[in-house]
Amino acid sequence: MRMSEGVEWGLHCCVTLAWLEGDGPVSTARLAASFELPAAYLNKRLQALVRSGILSSTPGARGGFQLARSPERITLMDVVAAIEGADDVFRCTEIRRRGAGAAASGRELGRPCGIATAMRRAELAWRRELAAQTLADVMAGTPASAAERTRRWFAAERTHT
Predict the structure, then answer these.
(1) Global pTM?
(2) Which CA distances in Å does 68 have to 49, 57, 58, 109?
(3) Which helix (H) or strand (E) holds 117?
């Protein structure tokens, strides 16, 4: 399974916004510059996080993004679902019913196949694990120097803009 880089970008932006909480909204341009990312593409990811209630957006020259709820109430799964969508990763198309399987009995085909069952079980485990971890958990496992470096960078940028 592969997630888009937008998930990584969204998660890093959410952690950054949590570290900057109380400093007011942060613009897409500043967030993009802090990670050397294309602002237009990042903005699409941030808007998806707004639509999902993870971020709030303030329009205008001094506007930008902030967390809409505390880091303890935002799971990694919340961010993944906001960016990637909530659809199942594995989609069973029932190919077992084609070709040689077309002659199979209804009894044989009445339940999901072993492949679909195994894939669903794996996906549920993955989703549960991401849902069990919050931004606060990620932040707790991050060196304090990363948070301080981020705060210093944004403070310096604020004085230059």
Answers:
(1) 0.87
(2) 9, 9, 11, 46
(3) helix 114-131
